[in-house]
Amino acid sequence: MKNIYGLIAITGLALTLIPSILVFTGAMTNATHKWLMTLGMILWFGGALGYRKTLRST
Question: Are 46 and 12 a contacting pair, CB within 8 Å?
Answer without folding.
Answer: yes
